[in-house]
Write a sequence for this structure.
């Protein structure tokens, strides 16, 4: 029964689409967003327009404001857990739900003064779990679904060169997740992880040969199978050189 539940969670989660978006300014500041489209997954629940709990919304929640409202509860947590939350106070979450179209999109975003500050964006995404009505950002560990926070990412931008370097943060947890995913690899072909980065100048060189460039040459887009990325984070490593 437990294995059946795990398989069901994985199949449902395989309908999600991740998009990592960044707008980088000349001085190294910018905005980073990690979004998850849950539309297909929510469709498994039937006609959402008839669900009174699924209401239309497009709202932004400030983590800083939310943590202030929950300060009494947060104070009961361990110092370690409190610090993890406080580190996310400059993040915001946007929730978009439309029962007529079935659209369900959640994204976490933050402004940064230096792109290095965006290294912990996925942590902020995981802090959003449970806040969105009727959904979960990611399955719990024990449910066996793939968890993006097992993959760490570091960013750098210096002298017109940008680099994204992904890596496995916890090999033991990663191995456990990979064992779980073997049960549902055939169902996960449509699950994608997309990078969409906009730079202050034209891209003159990219390490990704299949990258798509915008007409003005400033926006680069790369798409990979989420399963491919989860197995080998290097699949979405990227080095970009901008024009002088």
């Amino acid at each position: 029964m437990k294995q059946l539940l795990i398989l069901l969670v994985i199949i449902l989660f395989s309908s999600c689409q991740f998009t990592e978006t960044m707008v980088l300014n000349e001085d190294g500041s910018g905005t980073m967003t990690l979004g998850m489209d849950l539309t297909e997954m929510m469709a498994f629940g039937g006609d959402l327009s008839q669900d009174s709990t699924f209401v239309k919304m497009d709202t932004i929640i400030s983590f800083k404001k939310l943590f202030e409202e929950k300060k009494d509860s947060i104070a009961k947590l361990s110092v370690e857990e409190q610090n993890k939350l406080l580190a996310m106070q400059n993040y915001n979450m946007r929730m978009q739900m439309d029962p007529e179209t079935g659209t369900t999109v959640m994204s976490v975003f933050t402004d940064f003064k230096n792109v290095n500050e965006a290294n912990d964006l996925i942590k902020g995404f995981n802090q959003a779990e449970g806040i969105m009505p009727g959904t979960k950002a990611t399955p719990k560990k024990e449910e066996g679904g793939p968890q993006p926070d097992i993959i760490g990412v570091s960013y750098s931008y210096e002298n017109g060169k940008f680099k994204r370097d992904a890596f496995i943060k916890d090999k033991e947890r990663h191995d456990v997740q990979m064992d779980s995913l073997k049960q549902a690899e055939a169902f996960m072909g449509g699950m994608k992880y997309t990078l969409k980065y906009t730079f202050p100048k034209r891209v003159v060189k990219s390490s990704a040969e299949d990258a798509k460039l915008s007409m003005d040459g400033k926006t680069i887009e790369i798409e990979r199978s989420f399963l491919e990325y989860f197995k080998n984070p290097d699949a979405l490593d990227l080095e970009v050189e901008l024009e002088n």
